[in-house]
Structure formats: C-alpha cells, structure tokens
Design goal:
The protein contains 15 helices and 8 strands. By secondary structure, it is α+β, with helices and mostly antiparallel strands. A 6-stranded antiparallel β-sheet has the order 3-8-4-5-6-7, sandwiched between helices. Helix 10 packs antiparallel against helix 15 and helix 14 runs antiparallel to helix 15. The longest helix is centred in the last third of the chain and has 39 residues. InterPro entries: ACP-like_sf, DUF6005, PP-bd_ACP.
Length: 443
C-alpha cells in the first residue's frame, strides 16, 4: 500500500462519511486541526473509518499522538501500522518531521475561567483553589441517555456562593428568564454601557455562530461564557474568552446574533473592587465541599450511559447511538486538569518534591486521555459492523477501562487529601492533619 492510496482514502472518508466542509483546503500538508477543523472526536471518527476500510488496526496510542498534525503524517502513521508486506512495500517512503498538533489546548470550565480572570490580575489572591470545584462539576445525562455538559436547567449557584465566600466578590445574574430574548439583549446592552471599568459583564453566547472564532470542539450549538466590553467604535465590542485564552474585537451584530441563539440564556455581572484576600480556613472548607473521596461522578455517568446502550430495550437507546451519546466526553474530560491546579496550589504553599509534582501531572494527563480510549471503543460499537463476540469483547474492554479510570482518580484524590491534611496542619486550621500512621499514596 502506497502513501498516496492512504491519502486518497483519508479524503474519501472526510467527504463521504464526515461531510467535511473544508476539503478545498485538503492536501498532503494540510493540518488536521487548524486547516480541516478536525477536533478529537472527528479525528477518532476518521481513524475508525480508515481502520475498517483499510484493514489497519489503530492502536490506543494513536488517540493521543501529538505528531499526527497533518494529512501526510497521519498517512505515514497508518502505513506504519500495516502488515509486514505493506510495511516493506512502503519502506522507501519517509515522512518529514511534523509540528506538534494542538488538539487539546487545556480548556477546563468557561464559567470558572471567566470568574478567575479578575483573580489572576490581583496579586493578593490565588485563583488555583477555586478550581477545586471543577474536577467533579455536574455532569448531565439527557432524556435520550446522552452525556451532556450543558442544559437549560444547569445553574452555577455552587460556584457563585463559594466565589463570594473565598474572594468576597458577589456574582449577580443579570439575565431575567421572565423577559423575552429581545428584552434581555436590550438589558445586556444597557449594562454594557453603564458598567464601571472594574465591573465584568459575563454573557452566554453560541460560539458556533461566530465562525471566525475557532470552534475546535466541533459543537453545534456551542454554549459558552465570555466577557464583553465596549470599544470606541460603536459597531465593535471587545471580547475576552479566558477559557480559550483568546481576546479581541468582534463585530457587535455578530455577537448579538450569537447571544440571540435559542440554545443559550444567561449572564452575570461582578466587580473586581470587591476582591479581598482569601482566608485559609474558607479555602479548607471549600476543598472539603468539593472533594468526593468515595465516588467519581463523571466516570459513573459514562458507565451509566454505556450500560443503558449495552442492554437496549424497545423504549431505550439503540447500540448504534452509543458513540453519539458520548460526543460531549472530550469537553467534560478536560475538567480533570483542575487536579493540576490543586497540586500546584499545595506544592507552591507547603512545598514538596518537584519531581513528584510532575509525576502526578502525568497521571492526570493519563486520566484525561484514557477517556478517548473509552470513546473510541464506543464509536466502534456504534458502527453495527461487529459480531456479537466482538461486541462483547469491546464492552469488556470499556468496563475494564472505566474501572481503571476509577482507580486512577481515587489515587489522585487520596494524594491530594494527604497534601490537604499537611497544609491544614501547617496553617493550624480547624481541620487538623491525621496523626502518624497515614501511609503516603505512591505513584
């Protein structure tokens, strides 16, 4: 098999199966993410179709391979997974080094990121403790038994209450559900005109309707919180998107269109003048309110979705819908990076070996990336092309991976809890560290 054959197969899958809208940019050096807009889910779908059509087994390592940056490097990688005869046939071809892909720039929680923007700008306070509430933030399952990161009923009262307790800043909702969309948009524009320089106006908009903004999670609609400010030009607004680490000028009418989407509703206003230094006791109370030492809600929800699709009934979801049911998993999985903020907070305050800190970051990375292994197997099960024996084997692999996810996360939480106890002891807080006899959690 020659590389050109694989490249042609890639293009065919993008056209016939994924209905890629950017094939006019397709060529050997086209970047999968930046040029063809393939997010992690679409890349997995592409790999799955190529695996089935070319008869090449795609290893789990491919799901997190950072050097699969272009069409050419993907083709070369697939050829390297072929049969010995295929490898010999292609031995004369070599791939030039490719730049690293950026499929998973860390985006953790847009609401929390917007709030933390003012905390990062104030040297008196540390934003890292506020991420304690993110790793187990609410995960939803909708009426069709699909995993979801957003729903109209979702509120952020837990974060709002604790943000005020920790940092002294009241986060007040300005969006009024009893008003029409047009009335709320008018209210928002009035607040935007009247707000002081220290106030932040947070709005929920549909990022999908801002095509010039990159939507690398390929969500439609894409509910997302950003911060808005007026500019000297009445037709332009300044948008700050802390979660995606982007800021710049947007045309006012485009933003209004994204705000008017029926898929979004919500917004808050808060003032950095209210920031006060955080008290360690309040941070300790927040940690205890957030840490779930005996459960991992996200993995529990994924397991629940899989189980519902594994035993379909007349009124339940079909197995062919399992892949779609886990479509939002990449958006949710990145919340686990919040553990890194917690380790960093304790590491910077009480100090422990930097090598250990880096090692735990690797464990967290493995936790995040292993959700892709589960999702890829779920997508295989959704093809309808597997025998009962193959389906059974894949379900066994998924349940084994879910158990491994639980074990990994419980280890992370156990070590964090030990560091928390040490931190409480050093600062002589109401929550005292355990007496001698508590074995340190090892990597």
């Amino acid at each position: 098999m020659q590389k050109n054959t694989v490249i042609s197969a890639i293009r065919q899958v993008l056209h016939n199966e994924l209905q890629c809208q950017y094939l006019d940019r397709f060529h050997a050096q086209a970047r999968l993410n930046e040029d063809l807009y393939l997010d992690s889910v679409l890349l997995m779908q592409l790999l799955l179709h190529l695996e089935l059509s070319l008869g090449i087994t795609v290893p789990d390592s491919a799901l997190n391979k950072q050097d699969l940056a272009t069409v050419d490097s993907l083709a070369q990688f697939l050829l390297s997974q072929g049969t010995p005869a295929q490898l010999a046939d292609n031995a004369v071809e070599s791939a030039a080094p490719e730049p690293a892909a950026e499929f998973d720039d860390i985006k953790v929680h847009c609401f929390v990121s917007c709030l933390c923007e003012i905390i990062k700008a104030d040297e008196r306070v540390d934003h890292r403790p506020f991420y304690f509430g993110v790793w187990d933030a609410q995960v939803l399952i909708d009426a069709q038994c699909r995993l979801a990161y957003h729903a109209p009923t979702l509120n952020h009262d837990f974060f709002r209450r604790w943000f005020q307790r920790i940092y002294g800043v009241a986060v007040n909702p300005w969006y009024r559900p009893e008003l029409s969309k047009a009335q709320n948009l008018q209210l928002m524009q009035t607040l935007l005109q009247q707000k002081s320089a220290s106030e932040q106006l947070m709005v929920m908009l549909d990022l999908y309707l801002l095509p010039e903004r990159e939507n690398k999670f390929n969500q439609n609609p894409f509910p997302h919180y950003v911060l808005l400010t007026e500019t000297d030009d009445p037709e332009q607004w300044f948008m700050s998107d802390p979660d995606f680490r982007w800021q710049g000028v947007q045309r006012k009418q485009q933003v209004l269109q994204a705000l008017a989407s029926e898929a979004v509703a919500g917004g808050f206003i808060f003032d950095s003048k209210q920031i006060k230094p955080a008290e360690n006791q309040v941070i300790a109370d927040y940690f205890l309110a957030c840490i779930k030492r005996d459960s991992n809600p996200m993995t529990d929800r994924v397991r629940q979705v899989v189980q519902h699709h594994a035993a379909p009934s007349a009124a339940g979801p079909a197995l062919t819908q399992l892949g779609a049911a886990l479509h939002h998993l990449p958006v949710l999985a990145i919340r686990k990076y919040a553990f890194e903020h917690a380790f960093a907070f304790f590491w910077l305050d009480i100090g422990f070996d930097e090598t250990e800190f880096e090692a735990w970051c690797e464990v967290i990375e493995d936790l995040v990336s292993s959700y892709k292994k589960i999702q890829y197997r779920a997508m295989k099960l959704s093809t309808g092309q597997l025998s009962p024996a193959q389906q059974s084997a894949l379900f066994d692999e998924i349940y084994q991976l879910l158990d491994q996810q639980d074990a990994t996360e419980f280890r992370i939480k156990a070590r964090l809890y030990q560091l928390f106890e040490q931190w409480c002891g050093i600062h002589q807080l109401g929550f005292a560290a355990k007496a001698a006899g508590s074995a340190e959690v090892s990597l």
